[in-house]
């Protein structure tokens, strides 16, 4: 496995792989990797021949009140995990490599996926998904993968990237892989490391609430307001939880629905201590 920092270096390696008839997989990450990321790499290795993992803490998706300097950087551990999981290349550029135009006077180019970036996490994080879409567009242009792999935990991100790829006719497949969870159901996340022991126990309430909603829907309940009410009761079992949102939305438009019909996304964002955790499930029912 090789580690490269320059665009021309990763392009050279990808070109060599393509010349050898290999298909290219990309796993975009911001580092601080965990089993969820490593499962994406293993899936990419099964579905493509040559896997590039990008490790880049993207400054354009951080808001003015979000401290990018506090984001964990664990490159040594990330490198070991990537190699064990089957990655062929780590692309770990600097911000200046990805955004050389940021210091120029004539401005920047952005990718906006309108409307889909407004609800859910976009409601309280303006500009976040503009940064996500822009950096993913850049990575897709740099690496030219046949497929890129994302986790279902970041459902809104995956939906936005799928729409961007479709609308801009980008020649790659977006593969969304199931959320990887701890034994108690907590979705694996780099943010979990910010939880103390008591907060970690409380974090299991997110998935418990989603499971309760799934049971209620399977039992015939379709009223979104009632389902959300029952989910709130579970999350509020701890006084340490602060609900950002609990929303039930259409998976294509991300618009809230009054009744659960067809393919529907149930999404949660909850702050526990200093960590803001997100989780979701998708249900499909008549």
Please give the alpha-carbon distance between the first and last residues: 47 Å
* Number of discrete domains: 2
Global geometry: globular
The name of the CATH topology of the largest domain is Rossmann fold
Give a brief outline of the structure:
With 286 residues, the protein is α/β, with parallel strands linked by helices.
What does this structure look like?
With 286 residues, this protein is an alpha/beta fold. The chain folds into two domains: 2-177, HUPs (Rossmann fold); 190-281, Pantoate--beta-alanine Ligase, Chain: A,domain 2, CATH 3.30.1300.10. Helices cover 38% and strands 21% of the residues. It is built from nine helices and nine strands. The chain has helices spanning 7-19, 35-47, 75-85, 95-98, 121-124, 128-143, 155-167, 197-218, 224-235; strands at 2-4, 24-29, 50-55, 89-91, 147-151, 173-177, 241-250, 262-272, 275-285. The strands form two sheets. It has a six-stranded parallel β-sheet, with helices on both faces. Strands 7-8-9 form a three-stranded antiparallel β-sheet, covered by helices on one side. Helix 6 crosses helix 7 and helix 8 (197-218) runs antiparallel to helix 9 (224-235). The chain is globular.
